[in-house]
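Board notes (copied after class):
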Amino acid sequence: MIPTQDASARKREIDEKLKQEQDTLSFIRENLEKSDQLTKGMVSILSSFESRLMQLENSIIPVHKQTENLQRLQDNVDKTLSCMDHVISYYHVAKDTDKIIKEGPSGRLDEYLACIAKIQKAVEYFQDNNPDSPELNTVKVRFEKGKELLEAEFHSLLTRYSKPVPPILILDMIGADDELDTQEEVTLDHLPETVLQDIICISSWLVEYGRNQDFMNVYFQIRSSQLDRSVKSLKEHFRKSSSSSGVLYSPAVQNKRKDTPTKKPPKRPGKDDVLDIEIDSYIHCISAFVKLAQSEYQLLTYIIPEHHQKKTFDSLIQEALDNLMLEGDNIVSAARRAIMRHDYSAVLTIFPILKHLKQTKPEFDQVLQGTAASTKNKLPSLITSMETIGAKALEEFADSIKNDPDKEYNMPKDGTVHELTSNAILFLQQLLDFQETAGAMLASQETSSSASSYSSEFSRRLLSTYICKVLGNLQLNLLSKSKVYEDTALSAIFLHNNYNYTLKSLEKSELIQLVSVTQRKAETQYRELIEQQIQSYQRSWLKVTEYITDRNMPAFQPGAKLKDKERQMIKDKFKGFNDGLEELCKIQKVWAIPDKDQRDAIRQAQKRMITQAYRAFLQRYTNISFTKNPEKYHKYRPEQVEAMIERLFDTSA
């Protein structure tokens, strides 16, 4: 059982909590009643505000709509006034722009173009809205006048500021291309930057609004003239420099053509020096044209519309290109005339030119890319003409060597090297600087399948064959010429000198390597020919040595008494030797052997042969008494004979 005291306490506690809950409930009820009262008051206020707001809205909306209508009316009025002002401005455009248009665009291009734009808009307005208006004709006339003045300004700026490129600058451009250590690229500023920008601006306007391509014709005519003048000024620079100081080059350009066919030792007469200058001039003019054309095309791309650039460029370069091709044709014609008069060395002038043209052709083709086919074919046509005339000259030269006439007056009296030999060798040596060019000339005339598959090796073999042909023709002609001499010994000396000169010349240059391409034993063959002629010459001394031989002579004992017939035989021996020696030495003294080594070798061989036989002869007859006057027959000691032979081939002795 729970104690009575605990139950009483528990009850009191419960009663207290119940009372607290009842008090809380009463408080909540009171607050709910207050909240209901407040809600009813707020609802009443909001209902009253809504009613008043509706009344305000009903009174404001009509005012707002009226104000909005008034604002729209105001805007319409402003727009109408603005449009009226704009339309009226079109009627005043002619008057407003009159002064600026009359004064032209010079020095005020931007302002002038702005006026032109106003006039153009006026034209468009009247065309669209009032095509019958007299104002339309007025602004049209003003627009055309403005366009004409722009075209005139375009022409004026180009004419005033387009100048020929100075020759020194052109030479610097060409030289800079050839120098590997060039630090800075030489550039051309054809027009001042501000002028260029004005020209670009005018051309852009004329393309877009002018609807006229006349300015492109003006452009190519002016620039074409300047391009041609630049090339001609370079040519004139060469002419003046050569006549005054002989200095042909700008400091930036080194003389790279050291050995050419037109520069051959010894120094040639002044006429040929002038020809050298003309060749250098033409070669440099070709290079100058390429550089200047490249520069012109670069300038043209800024000014001419893209779809007109190639055509305009084609027209621009025609005058300068035609003049260069005409000069090239004149060179070909001069070479053709030279062939007709058998002046084959003059034809060599085309070799350096042709070599340069072929070297320049890739760059040339690149510059002319996009031009007309007739323009592109001009350089190849010139190259073909030069190759054809060059090949003709080479072939006719070979024939001329073979057919050179045998004239006594044209033969060297001392048996020295014939002019034909020296000229032929010189001609061949001059081909060395242009081996590929000469080979290409010969290949251009070939119709075989091997020629169609042209290569440098094929060219080299053709050139080798040609040189061998010339040398063969020369040898045949020399043999024929040698028969002009009545003295076979002089004939042998003549052939020896010419064969030896040919061999030495071949060995001193690259000709021997070229010859060996197709004739590997050429050197040996020439040495054999030389030796044959030496032996032929030595046979001329047999008529001297036969007197000092024992042939048909009996044996004589020292101290024995000789018969008159025997004494006379010995006397005839001595006399024949003396007379023969004197005669040969007198005759052969004036003969010539230019090669010192060969001359000394032949003398030494003769001295050995003659003095050995002479000493043996003297030894046989020294102790034999065949005359009372031995000094009459024993005129020369062996040393004197040697001295006489030593003076052979020496007119100064």
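Comment from the instructor: Confidence is low (pLDDT under 50) at residues 245-270, 448-453. DSSP finds 24 helices and no strands in the chain.
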